[in-house]
Amino acid sequence: MQVLLIEDDVSLAKGLQTSLKNEGFIVNHLSEGKQAINSIASSEPDIVVLDLGLPDMDGNEVLKQIRRRNAELPVLILTARNSIQDKVAGLDSGADDYLAKPFEMDELLARLRVLERRLSSLKHADLTVGNVSIDTRAQQVKVNGENVDFFRREYMLLKMLMENVGRVQTRDSMESKLYSWGEEIASNAIEVHIHHLRKKLPENFITTVRGVGYTIKTQ
């Protein structure tokens, strides 16, 4: 699950990135609203965590511009503004949730998990291709009717491929979903993940498109 953190407090942002990554989230960080709007337009994250007190524009305006492009992208406001009026304004602008600073990390994680489950329900609660199925709400994979365990990045990659059956996913697109910006990535990281996936999946379930990427063909 890829999170875009829009927060101008660098120290807080670094702490949040570390904590969220430890919980399995892929976290990218921007400190300005205009940067965030442009970033979301070119590569949409799964969830946005948005501060309101940004240096270049008010967070509520950022949220309104996000909503003009996408009505369903989950947005959690994380801000020091904690009055009832501020909360009402944020929710009325289109936020899915509102958490005031200071906050407990456990509460933020719980709220993100709620948004993650809601996102899975809005998209595909169940994905099935041939003898492989994913319950995205429980994040459980079955192969030939049996539960199979996958590491988080393996699961994310398989889900991405199964959501795009018949469409080739390039190496760059897969890396962008599995890794944070600036994170050191081994040159063969995607190939290694695919190798591990293939060991757990039916033979020829994932097809290599040489020089382009990988796909799952319609079964």
Automatic annotation (TrEMBL):
Pfam families given in the database record: Response_reg, Trans_reg_C
UniProt-recorded name of the protein: Two-component system response regulator PrmA
Source species taxonomy: Bacteria, Pseudomonadati, Pseudomonadota, Gammaproteobacteria, Thiotrichales
List of residues that carry 4-aspartylphosphate: D51
InterPro entries: CheY-like_superfamily, OmpR/PhoB-type_DNA-bd, Sig_transdc_resp-reg_C-effctor, Sig_transdc_resp-reg_receiver, WalR-like, WH-like_DNA-bd_sf
The Response regulatory domain, residue ranges: 2-116
The entry's DNA-binding region: 124-218
Residue ranges of domain OmpR/PhoB-type in the record: 124-218
Alphabetic keyword roster: DNA-binding, Phosphoprotein, Transcription, Transcription regulation
Bilayer-crossing regions: none
Cross-referenced Gene3D superfamilies: 3.40.50.2300, 6.10.250.690, Winged helix-like DNA-binding domain superfamily/Winged helix DNA-binding domain
